[in-house]
Amino acid sequence: QSRGMLGCLGNLGTACFGYSRLTSLKRKQAAMIIALTFSISLSLSLSLSVSELMLSVHSVDLLSSKMGQNRMEHHTDHYHGNALIIRRGQTFQIELDLSRPFNSNTDKLHLDLRTGPLPMVSKNTHVIIQLVEELEDDRWEAKIVERNGNRIKLSVNSHAKAVIGKYKLTVTVESPKGGSATTRDPRKDIVMLFNPWCEDDTVYMDDEEEKKEYVLNDTGRLYYGTEKQIGDRTWNYGQFLEGMLEACLYVLEKSEIPPPGRGDPVNVVRVISAMINSQDDNGVLAGNWSGNYVGGVSPTAWNGSVEILKKYHKEGGLPVKYGQCWVFSGVTTTVLRCLGIPCRSVTNFQSAHDTDVSLTTDMYFDEKMEPFDELNTDSVWNFHVWNDCWMARPDLPPGNGGWQALDATPQETSQGTFRCGPASVTAIRTGQVYLKYDTPFIFAEVNSDKIYWQRNLDGIFTQIQCEKKAVGHCISTKAVGSDKRNDITHLYKHTEGSEEERIAVETASRYGTKPDVYSTSMAEDVSLEVKLEGEGPRMGADAQLTIVMTNFSSQTRKTTLHIQVAVMYYTGVLKGTVKKDKMPVALKPNEVKAMQWVLPYHSYQDQLVDQAALMLTLSGRVSETQQVLATQTSFRLRTPDLSIEAVGEAVVGKKMTAKITFTNPLPRTLKGVVLRVEGLGLQEVKEVVVGDVGSHSTVTRTEHFIPTQAGHRKLVAALDCKQLTQVHGVADIVSCWSQTWCIGTTCRVVSEQTFYYLGG
């Protein structure tokens, strides 16, 4: 800048020397020329100097106002304060005020987000966000979406599996000649939460009303009493009030879970179930069932979670006195909803406490039928309150996602710590107690038999009575969108006394400490399997499956198969049952019987979700041997392909054509069909509006595009329609330059102009 100024002054001096020798009239003209020349020279000099200035960040605006775009789009506008609170797997915007306009050709910029005490890129606790031309899903990246002088607005995309918690933000800029500059403002921290609105997040929940209830509702109802006299009370969760987000994050920070593990909701809810009680880790609440609450608050006196969590946070992690099951559950609901995990409090009436993992509730008597108090450690509570939380379970077999039972009341240890869950409610219902976590304990709470034992003179105990309907009644939670009680017993167990329920009980007992408490089958000589013919059932038609049963014995075998089909998300979460059926089967000696079973189209047409997956569950008991039969099979309904036909030669720079054909397989009209067509080196993403497509109708669309790159390319298309998903197609296209000379096996590519020149 100094050299430029000196140059301008030198030019001015030369002009002034000549100026003194001019006449009066010419002096006026010359003065104007000198002034103009000086102005232009100075402007050019300053322009050059500005472009070479070092780039720096004057300020960062996180656009974090409660009523701003970020908070509204991320459903975090209810949280107190004006911090930037966002949900993972979703874009957010920030604005940067720079020292000069940003030059995309020469300047560089990236963001750093760090969380935890020792941020590391390899642990996903240090995230480096680079600028890109176009944002893509499922990755961290940023794009400039607005420019206004020295200000730029960035759209930042976060990963759907990102670690949750508080992140520190730094902005680093680099200019060609000025080195780099980093800006860090401790007031500009960002809080990342789980995202039930993001399909790629493990906690995704598709029903909007359920999200409003289980994530956004800050009050609820808790149930207590007895099954014949159910009482209820309002509980203030208060997850959005001032200081609550900080308190809930504090609970997470005090837990045993390291920051890299905070991206997995299974890990998070498991550690929260431990941290809500103080039994072995100085958690939030001290339990007290003595009736003496001196030095604290009676559990029945609490009206909500806010005072408890704020007190715990303010006093530096000193357990709050006192809590019982409904208080533990209410606080758990607050913390998980605050962190973005759908959660509800659940009350089980006549709730068993199995102390020896027998999966039965045992009562022991001596020879005179006097109770054996030292052995009678199992108990049945009038009621017990725990939680359900919603998530996929990629760590379990398909079909076990959805509601997971979680219990923060300290009853028994799990892997050395007082915690319980998450246990798949589906696994509890079917007796699959070998699936983690703590499924046997919760199964016993809702569906164990109460067995009475008497000691014989020889000291051996004999079973004298079995109550099969003693526990697990009126399992209750608040209804969605109202204060009514919703009975969800059917989610936890089959109808009491049904064959399916008995099969679940006996299946579970095999994995307990008393596997022989129920009579074992005299033989296991019948097999059961499901077969899919060819490529499997097609969308829009009845789904036909083959059930194959084999009798390996030389005697007749009879059973009744219980058949159930449920819609399933690709994450393994079951949406709901679409059909139930019963099939009596008689097998001749050594017979292999293949039976056709049909799921009519009308049973599933309005129930399907993305990926069109279904879970078939079969169960039954062989009458002659009491052998239990059970199997599960997941299958999808095949969707049609889009047919893409390339027309003409593919030449770089020349227009070509492709015909895209689609046939609606459904006996109903598809509404608002859109095709998305693209191909690297062929065609940028383009939306083609098709409109409505009638039942079993065929439509063809012709698309024109110009190849920009030579070689093997793929033109792909996908159909976007609410009623039919996973429909796509591809065409292989080999594009070349305008002409190619071939000599022997050697081909030389030349341009069109060169070809004609050589030809001349």
From TrEMBL:
It comes from Oncorhynchus tshawytscha. Interacts with PLAAT4. It is found in: Membrane. GO terms for cellular component: membrane. GO terms for biological process: keratinization; nervous system development. Ca(2+) binds at residues 447, 449, 496, 501. Binds 1 Ca(2+) ion per subunit. This is Protein-glutamine gamma-glutamyltransferase K. Residues 317-410 form the Transglutaminase-like domain. The active site is at 325, 384, 407. Catalyzes the cross-linking of proteins and the conjugation of polyamines to proteins. Responsible for cross-linking epidermal proteins during formation of the stratum corneum. Involved in cell proliferation.
